Protein: DNA repair protein RecN
Amino acid sequence: MAVLEELRITGLGVIEDTVLLLTGGMNVITGETGAGKTMVVTGLGLLFGGRADAGRVRADPGRAGVEGRLRLAGNVATAVHARITDAGGEPDDDGSVLLSRTVTVEGRSRAHVAGRSMPVSMLAEIGEQVLAVHGQSDQLRLLRPAEQRASLDRFGGPEHEKLLDSLRESYARWRRVSDDLADRRRNARERNQEADLLRLGLDEITRVDPQPGEDEDLKAEAQRLEHAEGLRTAAQTAQHCVAGAAEPADEAADVTTLLGHARRTLEAQASVDRTLGVLAARLEEMATLVDDVAAELSSYLAALDADPARLEVIYERRAALRGLTRKYADDVDGVIAWADRARNRLSELDNSDELLDELDRERQRLAGEVTELASRLSAARREAATRFAAQVTAELAGLAMPHARIEVAVLPRPVGRAEPTLTIDGVEVGIGPDGADEVELRLLAHPGAPALPLQRGASGGELSRVMLAIEVVFAGSGGPPTLVFDEVDAGVGGQAAVEIGRRLARLARSHQVLVVTHLPQVAAFADRHLVVAKDTGGAVTTSGVRVVEDTDRARELARMLAGLPDSDLGIAHAEELLAVAARERRG
Structure:
């Protein structure tokens, strides 16, 4: 079983610094009103990516911190460890994962996972895998029709959810094609005008036919032609200095002649001193290099041509390219890129009758696909609704509501504008991204009572029991391994409270359960009992959490029963309650 082994909270509300040591079964958290039980749930919310409220942070030390150690197993461990590793974290050698979250009084928040700084969203991703929190706000959430439909879909199982995903994908494709077709028809004039402008630009660019980098190449060629005489003079002078004048009458010494004379002179004395021979060889290498330069200068002069006609052609070509760059981009490469984008956009603007007919056929095909998937999903929801209602009703019988019954109504969705429709029993139904159904949970509180929506048909205590029954049913269908219940037993007492404790203990066989409660009948079923106690001895009120066992636990239950922790009669009653709960758990 995946469990949250340890939770440390510092600087949050009335809690200065406390550590909760948790077990894998049922953990109960109790305490006086105002002692800080809610801060424990708030801390859990922060640790798993919940919204940070700077108003909860203690002024001293000016920051709140929550740290937790998760020990994971099975598929949850595989998925969470893989995600953490991808993000750069590293779980401990024993497979446990350390999480932490800090919040300052200014509202700044930081998160760490497995020793690495991470976005807070990473904590939320892990929280979705390992933790589900149920409290009064969650009851209100489950009263919303969309949430009831989502809950039924989760209950339906993996194959049901695959069918829903397929519908959503097909619906999204149908929506894109429908919107595209409508836009083409609605804005035909504007699209045609835009297409005409793009075609004019493409025609102009096609006539010029610019090539990548052409403007820079032409600029360099024009510069050579414009300065041809100067380049010729420089090359001739260099060639004369290196290899001598072309006319033999010119007796000026050149580099080649001088190098040859120097080499021969050194070679003549090389037999006397070998050093001169080495230097003579190096002069020969220099002479070879000078010969190469002379040959290249000769080729350069032969190719150099001051061609006025070619220069005029270049001027005209560059002018044509400048005309394009003034209109479409900063350079020729940008103009070519503009032309590519224009061609793509023209294909998007295609408003030909052939294309419109093709899009209309595709829209109709996708609408048929959506309709078929929605029909299958509706049937699957009706089947799941029957099973879900039966299981929740059975749980209510064990929660002191033996005559209550839950119905799950799968209702037709109203027809929306321009969307696929489905005909069910002669009624036209609209299909949205979640199918053709609205889902409503209804409660029949007793025989003969009308089936009313939960928000109208259940009292506060009944609603708490219905929510718990739903969670028990959900737990049997999988879900996160750690469940947190924040005073879901509000408004309940007597035998119903005992039944709630029994149901939570049953959940704790397959899940880690954390329960914040004020009912001793629920607390008695705990595998570990933690008490939040307030300390008012100092200048500032603080709270801490401690584990209670044996006599201390009986005293806490006596306080919860009658407000008399030192009463012998109260303690005896508490011990009897603990004995009954122990027998129930063993049974």
